[in-house]
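Async update (no meeting this week)

Hi team, since we skipped the sync, here's where things stand on the single-chain job. The sequence we agreed to prioritize is pasted below, unchanged from the tracker. I ran it this morning and attached the output directly underneath so nobody has to dig for it. Comments welcome in thread, and please keep replies under the output.
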Amino acid sequence: MTAGFDYRAMLDVALEEAKAGLAEGGIPIGAALFHQNGALLGRGHNRRVQEGDPSVHGETDAFRKAGRQRRYQDTIMVTTLAPCWYCCGLIVQFRIGKVVVGESRTFQGGIDWLRERGVEVVDLDSSECVDLLTTFIRAHPDVWDEDIGEA
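Output:
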């Protein structure tokens, strides 16, 4: 993967998605899939609440909206929160080369597992991402527990 990306600008796209999800009454987690040349391929957000579909996480929504790609090794998944095991499986299955995480303080997910499998993980430790999700969790702990499979 080429160095010199503006990861903060990429994270801004995922943050816009997270805020859109919150405005829709959902969980504020957003993601975007970029090509390593910087082109935005797809963007999305967690829609579990809005669509009543437990499989629509931010990463899966962005991945689906990116459409079919010939290969994924040259892509970067940017997400406001460390990916859960389900989304980590998608990253490993399709060999997404790099994951940029807004934050992993609220939820560690499977980022160590991704690293063990050769995926480069960049954790930006964004206080904006932390604040957005922790505010939501305080207001809706039951929805959060359901989202991470602890309900």
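Quick observations from my side:
Residues 101 and 151 are 25 Å apart (CA to CA).
The mean pLDDT is 95.
Reply here if anything looks off.
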